[in-house]
Amino acid sequence: MLMLLVPLREYFIRLAEPRSIMDIVLVFLLVYGVLKLLRGTRAAPMAAAIGAFALLYWLAVNGGLVTLEFVLRGALLYIGVAIIVLFQAEIRQALIGFGNRFRVLFTRRHRGQFGQSIYDQIVLAATTLASTKTGALIVIERSVGLSGIVEAGVRLDAALSYDLIVAIFNPAAPLHDGAIIVRGDRIASASCFLALSLNPLLSKDLGTRHRAALGITEDSDAVAIVVSEETGLISFVRAGRIKRALDATRLRAEIFQAIEGRDLGSARAISSRAAESERDVEEIASAQW
């Protein structure tokens, strides 16, 4: 009995070392980050299937199932490529998030770079377009550059203003079809066509503009504002998540929080009734209605 306690005592002594504690904390953070990334996405059932596959292989090895082990061992050669292909959107988002957090440690973030008047111009334009049920898609570039999309559209590099946004999305205007890309306080490009989200779990009620907004926010850290030409509802899309039926106050708060990284003071003064309404209309892009 004493012989069994000695190795156990040495194990706990080593476990209390700073290096071991750091090792455990890093593993915990890694697993937590992966689980948080997979939660509520289409990758969750895929990850469960891969886990079941690994369990089946373990049973084949330990149970002496030679034929099954041979088949699964051959499949393991391609499992790495399969993970990259199946989880490419989630991996991209994870790397973007990690890169942004890592960069903050070495660079100073400048808040208020747009100025609150820029938010007002976007919000006013969105509400005006919504009142006339004019479709619009406004993409705001953040840390990840969208140069490829900007170059593919019609280059403007014009000062952002309410009049220009409304004029671009006028159905009679030649640039109304597609999205505009906002870079800083300027409209970099218009008539930009975006890749649509391939998430099979999206609601059937979401049109092309909404799917394009979801697609660009899945592939980058950009945010998007969508005005539906069918219902006139304003939606805000960020990281593959969409919030619908926003009014001017809540849309401005969402834009401010996404760009500046903190809540707008006036947004905290919204009544509890508005907060409950927001929870009712909030939709996770990977979940069905």
Task: Offer a concise description of the structure.
This protein is an alpha+beta fold. The chain is built from twelve helices and eight strands. A hairpin with a 2-residue loop joins β3 and β4 (186-192).
Instruction: Count the E strands.
Output: 8
Mean pLDDT: 76
Quickly give the structural class. Answer: alpha+beta
- For the termini, the CA-CA separation is 60 Å
Query: If strands are numbered along the chain, what order do they take across the biggest sheet?
Result: 2-4-3-1-5-6-7-8
H-E order: HHHHHHHEHEHEEHEEEHHE
- Please tell me what the overall shape is: elongated
- Radius of gyration, in Å, reads 24 Å
| Unreliable stretches covering 5 or more consecutive residues | 108-113, 263-289
Helicity range of the residues?
40-55%
SS summary, helix count: 12
Task: Please describe the biggest sheet, giving its number of strands, its sense, and whether it closes into a barrel.
Answer: 8 strands, mixed
What is the beta-strand fraction? 5-15%
